[in-house]
């Protein structure tokens, strides 16, 4: 379900007229622009901890019957789709792929896995509300273990790629 919602909202973000969201995209660019001048290790830590906190939080927020993960995955999908569309129109398809694909092939599955784990917690919460057999606490603990074992290391690898391989490929594609 997380993957379907994510894919649909990426498509919606791509087909939405990005110029309608130009202010948001430009503000995002203004916000992220200074990150390019930061020491790569510090940038790695910023990216890693940002993603680690968001994914851990989304798993824990699954206790709210799965509504926060739906919002998380749809907003992220739409924003990524819009940004992809904008970058493609400004810099070209090759550049857009170069700055998203290297780390995205790892980071996006980790975000989707965290969202799926959150849905599992939400399902147990819903069972508890409906007075059915549920194991919210044990599901949450099991999912947090998976988070530590799979999601967190995946996010670390993605962040490392994002600060090393992604800029190199972007420069290679852009000719800089």
Features:
176 residues, mainly alpha, 6 helices, 84% helix
Summary of the model, kept short:
The chain has six helices and no strands. It is mostly helical. The longest helix is centred in the C-terminal third of the chain and has 39 residues, at 136-174.
Structural class of the helix and strand makeup? mainly alpha
Shape summary: globular
Largest sheet: none
How large is the count of helical segments? 6
Number of strands: 0
Helix share bin: over 70%
- % residues in beta strands: under 5%
Order of helices and strands: HHHHHH
The pLDDT mean sits at 89
N-end to C-end Cα span: 40 Å
Number of separate structural domains:
1
- What Rg do the Cα atoms give? 18 Å
Low-pLDDT runs of 5+ residues are none
Chain-wise SSE layout:
Elements: H1 2-15, H2 22-32, H3 40-61, H4 67-91, H5 93-129, H6 136-174
Helix pairs in contact: 1-4, 3-5, 3-6, 4-5, 5-6
Structural overview:
- The chain is mainly α and 176 residues long.
- The chain has one domain (2-16, 51-174).
- Helix content is 84%, strand content 0%.
- The protein contains six helices and no strands.
- The chain has helices at 2-15, 22-32, 40-61, 67-91, 93-129, 136-174.
- The longest helix is centred in the last third of the chain and has 39 residues, at 136-174.
- It is globular, with a radius of gyration of 18 Å.
- The protein starts with a helix and ends with a helix.
């Amino acid at each position: 379900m997380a993957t379907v919602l994510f894919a649909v909202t990426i498509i919606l973000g791509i087909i939405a007229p990005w110029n309608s969201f130009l202010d948001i995209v430009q503000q995002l660019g203004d916000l992220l622009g200074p990150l390019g001048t930061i020491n790569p290790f510090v940038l790695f830590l910023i990216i890693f901890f940002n993603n680690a906190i968001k994914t851990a939080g989304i798993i824990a927020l699954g206790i709210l019957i799965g509504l926060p993960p739906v919002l998380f995955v749809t907003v992220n999908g739409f924003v990524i789709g819009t940004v992809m569309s904008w970058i493609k129109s400004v810099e070209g398809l090759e550049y857009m792929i170069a700055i998203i694909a290297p780390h995205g092939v790892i980071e996006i599955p980790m975000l989707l896995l965290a969202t799926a784990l959150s849905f599992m917690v939400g399902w147990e919460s819903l069972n508890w509300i409906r007075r059915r057999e549920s194991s919210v606490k044990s599901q949450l603990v099991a999912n947090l273990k998976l988070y530590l074992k799979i999601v967190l290391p995946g996010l670390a690898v993605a962040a490392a790629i994002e600060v090393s391989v992604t800029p190199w490929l972007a420069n290679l594609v852009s000719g800089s």
